[in-house]
Amino acid sequence: MSVAWATLRRSWLVTRRAYPWSYFIGTLLLGVFTIGLAYLGLRAVAGGEISAEFRGKAGTGDYLGYIAVGAAAYMFVVHGILWTGKAMIQEQREGTMGALIVAPARRLPYLLGFSAFAFTAVAVEVAVLFGCAALFGVRLAPTGAADAVLAVAGLALAVFGMSAVLSNVMIVAGEAHIAQNSVFHAIALLSGFTFPREYLPEAFRWLGEAVPVTAAMDVIRGVFTGGTGLDPGRLAVAVALGLAYTAAGFLAMPWAERRAMERSY
Amino acid sequence: MRHAAKVMRAEALKQHRQIFGSKLVLFSMLVWPLLKLAETYYTLRPLAATPGIAERWPLAADPERLLAFLATGALGFTFFFSLVQSAWHFSIERQTGTLELLFLSPANRLAVVVANGFAALVQNAWLFACFAVAMFTLLDVVNVAHPAMYAVVFLAMLVPAVAWGAFLNSVLIFSRDAAFLYTLLDDPMWFASGVRLPVFALPGWIRAIGSVLPLTGSLAVVRGALLDGQGIGDLAGELAGLTVLSGVLLLAAVGALRLGEARAQRTGQLRLF
Question: Is the CB of A198 inside 8 Å of chain B's CB atoms?
Fold first, then answer.
């Protein structure tokens, strides 16, 4: 616990002194322009109406709200992975990974500390995005406070699991740009952030099921846009996949660290 | 001319070795634009499948033509954004200490920035361009007034893109925070240039911003010539606008290089990052 707390404090301290504004503005702009695209498209292209096909597949006629929730969730996932998944490669780049490995701190509390920092920082950023979305007339209407907390917790676990695996890939490959952006582009298509996954061909839908954020997004949709409430089945899938990714990530971590250190010398 | 050709060859080789040494670069050249194209198509499909779409935006009534519209946008964005990336890469030269050496060499400055942009453009965009051509052929959506319009389309993308690259390189080569401009030119560029929405859907003030970005004019020519069967006469206004804009960008590049180099000689800031 002391390791997690120390990591959380260190991360906030560093970030307060040198906040990466270009990261924040880049992701915020993406969210704002995605909502702006939907707003202008709805007005000028669709004439204020939405197709019956979308209503059937999404379970709502509120296209703008659907896009806004998806854009905010995408921001949450992207920034969660950028902070947590890149923690180890950042240590590697700064030359402190060797010191971290020989320190008596365990990796789970270290990454949990980073996640705690990431999710508190991302909460502020998502709030800014929803503030911008409100200017377009978007109003959040979750089915209940407990549902909302559980849905966001499911998404956070999915992000943590993916970050643990991605962290290993990055330090073994010694590269973050291609790995992180490939994941971001793939989940943007497969996990149903800005359109219902039912639009995708069946093979892609199945592919999406292999990613924990897909099931977590279904839960988010039920609570924040569909009005159907928390789906316990999909939440169970998100939790199971999130835990499986976390376990796989931590089991492979000693091997990944060994490879990364061998490559450095 | 021989001097410029030597600089061109050297810059192209440098970029090829620096960035294209790994097969992983295929992801940024083809896989990412493809995934983005598919995501955009599915995001806009609920808007296109609405009653009365044929009156508001006839092109979107046909899903294949909508996909072709978005693919032209993706192709144009790949062209112009590859230049933003190449300009951003000058920050690597600054960090590795070779930027100052570049300015100590006798190489013509304008040739360096034009060559850098041109080499990045050709090496980044060729794969997605081939894919786009194959997709247009497969979808059978191309409707050109004359075969010569293919050359017009190519030049309407290439010339403004090279001028844009020269201008960006000239500005970012002296910047110590290139990442910020990179961020600023990513999303606003696709939004204001009509990459994913027709220009008529944008409010006047966004259209005004888009009009100073050469990507907007290039896309108007590409879509008009390839999807709407317009000839040179129909696109004369857009082509003239692109020619003027390209000239202004090249002149601005020359000015920025002179001013920037004089300031760097005074302050010695090429070593700082």
Answer: no
Nearest residue in B to A191, CA atom: B39
Dig out the tokens for A225 from the structure.
């846009």
Count up the domains in chain A and report the number.
1
The tally of CA atoms less than 13 A away on the side-chain side of residue A69 is 29
Lowest-pLDDT range, A73-77, A246-250, B18-22? B18-22
- Quick one: which of B240, B178, B241 has its CA closest to B213? B241
CA distances from B263 to A7, A210, B92, B260 (A): 43, 55, 20, 5
* Residue among A56, A83, A7 at smallest CA distance from A199: A56
The long-range contacts involving B4-11, CB below 8 angstroms and separated by at least 24 positions, are B4/B108, B4/B111, B4/B115, B7/B107, B7/B108, B7/B111, B7/B112, B7/B115, B8/B111, B8/B114, B8/B115, B8/B118, B8/B119, B10/B107, B10/B115, B11/B112, B11/B115, B11/B116, B11/B119
CB-CB under 8 Å, B27 with A188: no
pTM of the model: 0.89
Total domain count for chain B? 1
Q: Which residue has the tokens 């499909």?
A: B45
Across the range B218-234, mean pLDDT stands at: 93
| Angle of helix A145-173 versus helix A63-80 axis, rounded to 10 | 40
Residue linked to tokens 């499948």: B49
Say if CB A211 and CB A109 are below 8 A apart: no
Residue B198 is predicted with a pLDDT of 92
| Residue B224 structural domain | 2-271
Residues from chain B that touch A56, judged by Cβ atoms under 8 A, are none
Q: Which whole number is the average pLDDT over B71-94?
A: 83
Per-residue pLDDT of B230-244, as tens digits, reads 999 999 999 999 999
Burial (Cβ within 10 Å: 0-12, 13-18, ≥19) of residue B196:
buried
Q: Which domain holds residue A225?
A: 2-264
Q: What is the tens place of the pLDDT at every residue in A227-257?
A: 888 999 999 999 999 999 999 999 999 999 9
Residue B63 with chain A: CB contacts under 8 Å:
none
- Rounded CA separation A263/A255 (Å): 12
* pLDDT, tens digit (0-9, with 9 covering 90-100), for A145-179: 999 999 999 999 999 999 999 999 999 988 888 88
Contact A199 B42 (CB under 8 A): yes
Q: Single out the residue of A127, A33, A36 nearest to residue A79, CA to CA.
A: A127
